[in-house]
Amino acid sequence: MGMDATTYFMQRAIERLNISENLAKSLKLPHRVIKTEITFLLDNGKLVNYNGYRIQHNNALGPMKGGLRYHPTVNEDELTSLASLMTWKTSLLGLPFGGAKGGISCDPTTLSSSELERLTKTFIDKIKDLIGPSKDILAPDVNTNSQTMAWIMAEYSKTVGFSPGVVTGKPVFLYGSEGREAATGNGVAIVTEKLLSLDKKQLNDTRIVIQGFGNVGSHTAQALYEKGAKIIAVSDVKGGIFQKNGIDIPALKKHVAKTGSVIHFQTSDAITNAQLLATECDVLIPAALGNVFDKESANTVNCQYIIEAANGPTLPEGDEIFKNRGIKVLPDILANSAGVTVSYFEWVQNIQKFKWTLEQVQSQLNTFITKAFDNVINIANSQKCSYREAAFLISIKRVLESSQALGL
Ligand code: NAD
Predict the structure, then answer these.
(1) 142 lines ligand 1 (CB under 6 A)
(2) pLDDT tens, residue by residue, 12-67
(3) Whose CA is nearest to atom 28 of ligand 1?
(4) Most C-beta atoms within 10 A of its C-beta, which of 106, 123, 157, 379?
């Protein structure tokens, strides 16, 4: 297997730091890899087996933190890359967390709600000794949501005692935080506006294309729409839609709630996901799965800016092409970091048993995001490197400093 994207991007930053090969290796490899078989009964009485994973990458800065995804393509290599990405994201934001990622290789669309509950609870029962509010804290990701998180809290608390802090992204009425659901998308909109303003551009004359219309894609679209941007194309797993004069996002959200997809919306033109990525626009926002920008798609994109709302959308070869084409890329570890930041606020509230208002959440979020954004821009300017290299440089330095102080 070749080097995964996260390791490749880490390597680029590490080359700028004067550290030994073995120390670099200790930053790249995961702290612990958990693989477990999940056996449970379907509603029809049939016994099934799925593979569940939790990759705990690094805990130099605190308990490990990361999402849990349910998808047929889930595998150990990809999760390891995503777990590493979490280490760098929490570090970049200055959060007291390390990085982790988990997943179950399954197609959740074929499972009923009670089957999903049994799947989730069986998985948590298997890994309960290795997770917890001061060990490893889970969160929603692709195809998991606040309901999944409530099941995790219930199963973990059953043996360990009441522990809402084992998981974030819970329902607001069940120890969740105000503002968590929309946080990632809102953060994407905040950094998009900041990046454009560096070039004296404003959102109200900006054409935006978004791939993915789940939690992150839909909230990103809504926030940018409210700030006056024109969202000209969006897509989901079933296909895409294009409307030259801009899509009415609140109406689209109603259409999705009713039909389950963005396709066949009003008078929009139907497009494929490949066409969507090549649509002429100012800002392109991948907000679905990773590995979207390979050599081919990176050459066909027709935009000035890419904001990585998804985790790991750009492959190393895509990144090189964007650099050569002068396309500015705001990396995932900065662009989608509002999700984990509000997750941090949720964990803080759970531990302190004290609830914040939405205003408190938004104001603290702005402080964290602005600080990380300014930091990345300053380092990119002073080191004459890409935003991605700057982001990795900052975050790797912090983890390194802590690891060395803790003693290896
Ligand atoms: P989600 O399951 O809510 O939504 C995923 C969306 O992508 C859906 O609209 C789905 O139809 C679409 N999709 C799936 N496969 C596709 C394909 N092949 N082509 C086009 N569209 C496809 O998931 P989410 O939570 O919105 O996560 C999206 C991305 O954002 C992931 O990369 C995730 O890791 C990342 N992320 C999520 C959060 C969060 O808070 N939820 C935070 C940071 C990063």
Answers:
(1) yes
(2) 899 999 889 999 999 999 999 999 999 999 999 999 999 999 999 999 999 999 99
(3) 288
(4) 123
pTM of the predicted model as reported, rounded to 2 decimal places: 0.96
The residues annotated with a catalytic role in the active site are: 101
Distance of CA 208 from the midpoint of ligand 1 (Å): 17
Same domain for 204 and 328: yes
Name residue 93's amino acid.
L
Q: Which residues have a Cβ under 8 Å from the Cβ of 178 and sit 6 or more positions away?
A: 172, 355, 356, 357, 358, 361
**Domain holding 93: CATH number?**
3.40.50.10860
Q: Does the beta carbon of 273 lie inside 6 Å of ligand 1?
A: yes
Question: Which residue is associated with the tokens 């990046």?
Answer: 195
C-alpha pair distances (Å), 406 with each of 63, 89, 401 = 14, 20, 9
Question: Residue 292 in contact with residue 277, Cβ under 8 Å?
Answer: yes
Which is nearest to 348 in space by CA: 65, 100, 82? 65
**134 plus 194 within the same structural domain:** no
Judge whether 343 and 140 are in contact, CB under 8 Å.
no
Tens of pLDDT along 214-266? Answer: 999 999 999 999 999 999 999 999 999 999 999 999 999 999 999 999 999 99
Alpha carbon distances (Å) from 304 to 22, 201, 216, 328 = 39, 12, 21, 6
Residue 312 Cβ contacting ligand 1 at under 6 Å: no
Q: Where does residue 62 fall: left (phi above 0), alpha (psi -120 to 50 degrees), or beta otherwise?
A: left
Domain count, the chain: 2
